[in-house]
Every structure is written in C-alpha cells, then in structure tokens.
Design a protein that fits this description.
The complex is a heterodimer of chains A (about 80) and B (about 170).
Chain A: E1 3-5, H1 7-14, H2 18-25, H3 29-36, H4 45-55, H5 59-62, E2 63-65
Antiparallel strand pairs in A: 1-2
Helix pairs in contact in A: 2-3
Chain B: H1 2-40, H2 54-86, H3 93-127, H4 143-170
Helix pairs in contact in B: 1-2, 2-3, 3-4
Classes of the chains: A mainly alpha (about 80), B mainly alpha (about 170).
Chain lengths: ~80, ~170
C-alpha cells in the first residue's frame, strides 16, 4: 500500500502511548496497531478525526503517500 | 445455537453420505476388477459368469465409478463448508472455492452421463445389442442439473465477494 502511516512520530512528539490513544479514540489496541503498522485497508473519517483531535494534528501529519506498489483490493 | 445444532446434524448426515459414497465406489471398483478378470479369463471363471456381458457392464460400471467418485468429492467439500459453519466462520474465501469445486463436479457428472450414452451408442454400433438385453441411448440435457451448476457457481462468486468485503471491513479502522 503506497500510504505510510506516521503515527509513531506524532505519538512520540505528543508523548502519548498507543494504549492511551486507543482508549481515547475508543478502538482496540489491536486495531490501532493494525493502523500503525500499515496493515489497515481503510480508515474511517470518524477515526481519523478523533486521532487528529487527540494528537492535535492534521490528517497529512499522519498519512503520507509515496510512489509504491498498489495493493489489489481483491487480495 | 439452534443453527449450530442443525449444522452439526447436517455434518453427521454428510459424513454418513460420504461413507456410503466410499462403500459404493469400492463396490464399483471391485466389480470393474472382477469384470476385467472375467474378460481376460474368457468368462471361464464360474463365479464371475454373471459379469460376462460386457456390453451392459462397461457403461454401467463407468457410470457408477464416475457418479460415486463425484458424490464422494461433493460430500467432502460440503463437509468442509459445514465444518466452517460449525466453527462460526463460514464467510471465508475457501468456501467460495469449495462451492466452485462442487459446481465443477456436478458439471462433470452431467457431462459424464452424455459420455456414457455416447459410449453405449458406440458399443451398439460396433458390437451390436447384448443377447439378453436391450441397450438404448438417450442423450437429453438435464436442465435441473445445469441449473444447479449455474446457481452454485453464482453462490461461489457471492461467497468470494462476501469474504472479500468482510476482510476489508475487518481491516477498516
């Protein structure tokens, strides 16, 4: 997937742990981990909005596009 | 809970059907073996004289072996599908593949019926009618069978798509 999730960097910058963020957003740590490791296929606007609100950042601070291989949705 | 119990009963029924198919296939294979022995002995082996009419026997055995093999394979696939339902996870891509296999086996079964009829026709044409029997050829497409093949293929595609959507949903955060 040519979308990189830069959650690590912002979490360090904001000094918030994954567990704390997961609790504040209201999703499981496992799901947040899927998002952080780039295994997620999609992210809901509502989740993105909550992350941005808690981390006080913009979506572009979290998501980054790079020229890579597209993943087939049928896989 | 009720669905699980029903699935377990279906699973048991399929297991029994699978066992029956195995027994029938074994009988047909054994009969084919006996028929071959009888043919090579020129019908001299007394106990196997009842199998000496190869013109009747050959299409019958061939049809029996093909149909019982197909039944065996179909029940195996159905068992796997039911097993996944019992384990509370029926919407997996594998079940789409299993349904597709079932459709293919049904198609092969139907095609083999035509093949056996053509074979019977060739036997009548080249070897004539058996002494104490009357072989006839009836090639008529079974629309119910082809309908079943089509519906199961369609279901396999729906299953495949359902499994894909579920995976996407699971990976949507």
């Amino acid at each position: 997937m040519p979308i990189k999730v830069n959650l690590d960097r912002i979490l360090v910058y904001r000094k918030i742990s994954m567990t704390e963020l997961a609790q504040k957003i209201g999703i499981t740590l496992a799901n947040l981990s899927i998002l952080k490791t780039g295994k997620a296929r999609a992210i809901r606007f509502s989740t993105l909005s909550k992350i941005c609100k808690i981390l006080e950042c913009q979506p572009a601070d979290i998501l980054e596009w790079f020229d890579g291989e597209e993943v087939d949705d049928n896989d | 809970m009720q669905n699980q119990t029903l699935a377990q009963w279906i699973f048991r029924g399929l297991k029994l059907l699978n066992l029956c198919a195995k027994v029938v296939l074994t009988i047909f294979v054994a009969l084919a073996g006996l028929a071959i022995i009888t043919t090579f002995s020129g019908g001299k082996i007394g106990a196997f004289k009842m199998f000496s009419e190869w013109r009747v026997l050959a299409p019958m055995l061939l049809s029996g072996v093909i149909h019982s093999s197909a039944l065996l394979l179909i029940t195996q696939q159905l068992q796997l599908i039911t097993q996944s339902h019992i384990e509370n996870d029926p919407f997996v891509p594998e079940n789409g593949v299993r349904l597709k296999k079932i459709a293919i086996y049904l198609g092969i079964m139907e095609l083999s019926r035509y093949f056996v009829q053509v074979l019977t026709g060739l036997i009548i044409a080249f070897a004539g009618q058996p002494d104490d029997g009357d072989l006839s050829v009836k090639i008529a497409p079974n629309l119910v069978a082809w309908g079943a093949v089509f519906i199961i293929l369609l279901l396999s595609q729906i299953f495949k798509e359902g499994a894909r959507l579920r995976k996407n949903d699971q990976l949507t955060i």
